[in-house]
Amino acid sequence: MILSSALNLSPHTSAFRGDGGKEPGVEGFVNPSGKVLPIESIPALAKEVSPSVVNISTTQVVRLRRPRTRNPFGRQDPFEEFFENFFGNMPREQKRKSLGSGFIVSEDGYILTNNHVVQKADEITVTLLDKEEMVAEVVGTD
Question: Does pTM top 0.70 for this prediction?
Answer without folding.
Answer: no
